[in-house]
Design a protein that fits this description.
Blueprint lengths: L8 E2 L4 H21 L3 H8 L3 H9 L2 E2 L2 H11 L3 H4 L8 E2 L2 E2 L2
Antiparallel strand pairs: 1-2, 3-4
Helix pairs in contact: 2-3
Length: 98
């Protein structure tokens, strides 16, 4: 079994950390499904292992900031939203996209 990247952040047992991890995982999973990309394709695009993406989607670890930024670009969502912010998918600072 692949170990998570040393630079990923393990979600701790603290309630706030668990909430953030679950929110990130749910949004990432939903966005990957909507994109039609596989975890393997996402991993290859980011230069990480498929196991890393699986751990992110499960809420066990969180990606590094650089990987999170690349995820948001790849999946066409705001990084702040992906990290639990309130801006909906597809809405940029200029307003909703069509």
């Amino acid at each position: 079994m692949n170990a998570p990247s040393l630079s990923d952040h393990h979600v701790s047992d603290a309630p706030e950390s668990q909430r953030v991890g679950r929110a990130f995982a749910a949004r990432l999973d939903m966005t990957i499904k909507r994109s039609g990309l596989s975890s393997g394709r996402v991993a290859k695009s980011l230069g990480v292992t498929e196991g890393d993406v699986a751990l992110w989607r499960a809420g066990i670890t969180l990606p590094r900031a650089a990987d999170c930024r690349r995820l948001s670009e790849l999946l066409h969502v705001e990084m702040a939203w992906l990290n639990g912010g309130s801006k909906p998918v597809g809405e940029t600072s200029a307003g909703p996209t069509e």
